[in-house]
Amino acid sequence: MSQSIEVLNLRTQRDFQYVLKMETQMKGLKAKFRQIEDDRKTLMTKHFQELKEKMDELLPLIPVLEQYKTDAKLITQFKEEIRNLSAVLTGIQEEIGAYDYEELHQRVLSLETRLRDCMKKLTCGKLMKITGPVTVKTSGTRFGAWMTDPLASEKNNRVWYMDSYTNNKIVREYKSIADFVSGAESRTYNLPFKWAGTNHVVYNGSLYFNKYQSNIIIKYSFDMGRVLAQRSLEYAGFHNVYPYTWGGFSDIDLMADEIGLWAVYATNQNAGNIVISQLNKDTLEVMKSWSTGYPKRSAGESFMICGTLYVTNSHLTGAKVYYSYSTKTSTYEYTDIPFHNQYFHISMLDYNARDRALYAWNNGHQVLFNVTLFHIIKTEDDT
Length: 383
Description:
single chain; 383 residues; Olfac-like_dom; Noelin-3 isoform X3; synapse; Olfactomedin-like_domain; Noelin_dom
């Protein structure tokens, strides 16, 4: 850029000198012309006409001269700006030292890898605190579900949105949280069956939901656009037999955590108390079940974190996590972990292991809660 400006500058200066020379000639001719005008009676008409024509030829050079003067000033400004920019670039180079962009980029990637390795050393933790919520969007009816895939890659932040707890088959997809907030849908799915409740989950690219008026669980692949598996959850109550406190056909709650896929429900065999079953994500077979002593109808909502079920005592104002059951030790305890039910009615509350956050549908508001877990750090000696 500097070389091009310099060439232009030399050419302009050369032309500028030529025009200045012409300007001097024009001034001399103009003086002569005035002299002739004063004493035109002494000169022949022919000579006067020749001088007049010469003057007419030179007059158009005046605006050209002015333009060259302007260009010369502009080039001077360009040269000054280039000097300033060069000084800034030199300062930046001195500040960052010997590191070029690629080296800095590699250092950032290395740091990110080390942070991820550190996170992997955090074993499953115990819930200590819930903060928030952060309101992401206000939309839909009082009841519904929204979710992301906890097994998706870091670059895949798709959001799925399922409004209402019954009489609906439409799932709306958004490429990101930002698109979800702005309402920019990327795709719509028309499920083959209506769903029941709001306790669905997206896990490893598939939607798991309870088929309306049944205890059948459906696995629907978003990529393939079809049902991959369906299975009846034996003895599970359905269609408001054992719902959460708010009703809404919330008998069967499907959820996922760091360990895998789960179903939470109640049976007559367990006197209407909560049963926890770990499911095979491909076949939907029950791999193992735990029977608790907590009445399903007394629970506001529930969610799994690291193999422990946490149960709230209400879906209304003043709700708190009141009970927990560990599938690792097959033991329970009563807890007292409050959280802010900002919009007074929660109809969906699910944990996302990738985000380490609770997704909630709070009276037509889609909100997020942060969770604080008590972790045990794994060491190299741990097996």
